[in-house]
Amino acid sequence: MKSTVAAATALVLAIAATTASAGVVIFQEVVNQTGASKTDETVMVQGHRQKVISGDQETITDLDAGTMYVTNPKAKQFVQPKFPPAGLFAMKMVWEGSTTELKKTGGTHKVAGYACQDYTGSAVLGRHRLNLTKCVASDAPGAKEFVEYQKALATKLKGTPLAPKGEIPDGIPVSSSITWAQLPFVPPRGFPPAQAARINADLAKYKPVTTNTTVSKIEVKDIPAGTFVVPADYTKGAEPMTPQLMKIPGAHRIPPSAAPAGQVTPAAPAAH
């Protein structure tokens, strides 16, 4: 009898230990509205550490250490942004909707076999309006681990411009859609009407941009600690090291004519 109880206790402890150290791996695809650009992404979370693999770029965040690394495995290079992030790295997080307040709606769906609840939110960022929808699966495997990381991240970002607004959705977003739309230029008093018209004519050329992210699979497993460490043979590169940062929506879309006095605005890209 004692041996049976001891065996059962050992099994429970073993399961508990495995669960406590378990991580979650999320496989997803990011597609722009035309389908011309598709990127496979993998998001790995274990404890207070996260690694996101997106195309040729990998981002490692360790909340306990207060560090963030962006690596390029092909070039074997890395950069170490400030944490909390600043500059382009912070802009990227904002444009991805990390600070947008989400509210639960009545919609429910099923994505990749996971039942999910709709959340929506919007924000005005500079001369752009951001509209965001997410379908969040609270019963997906690894949802608890994922949400715990998001809450720990929110705590680290508290009091900064990157702090998320509102409550953190309880689960893993298995699908999301984000749209950036150019807002019209509202001229200040005394601004030449003809110049304002030219600015708005330029802005009208830039149509809303939508990016959709869809999860294909979620796995719960122990992730080796080395996954969250920059390899020893990588060298430090210059910022920004990869072109992803320069793809921030709106970073190159405001025509020079719309720039306020004394502010340098990058030129708009060539039409595709």
H-E string:
HEEEEEEHEEEHEHEE
Rg, alpha carbons = 22 Å
By DSSP (H or I, 4+ residues per run), the number of helices equals: 4
Low-confidence stretches: 1-20, 249-272
Q: What share of residues is helical?
A: 10-25%
- Just name the CATH architecture: Clam
Integer tally of domains:
1
Terminal residue distance: 75 Å
Mean pLDDT: 82
Strand-residue proportion = 35-45%
What structural class is derived from the secondary structure elements? Answer: alpha+beta
What brief labels describe this structure?
single chain; 272 residues; alpha+beta; outer membrane lipoprotein receptor (LolB), chain A; 12 strands
Describe this structure in words.
The chain has one domain: outer membrane lipoprotein receptor (LolB), chain A (Clam), CATH 2.50.20. A 12-stranded mixed β-sheet has the order 7-8-9-10-11-1-2-3-4-5-6-12, with helices on one face. The radius of gyration is 22 Å and the shape is globular. The protein starts with a helix and ends in a 36-residue tail after the last strand. The longest helix is centred in the N-terminal third of the chain and has 20 residues, at 2-21. The chain contains 4 helices and 12 strands. It has helices spanning 2-21, 87-95, 143-157, 193-203; strands spanning 23-32, 38-46, 49-54, 57-62, 67-72, 77-79, 103-111, 114-125, 128-137, 172-182, 209-221, 235-236. With 272 residues, the chain is an alpha+beta fold.
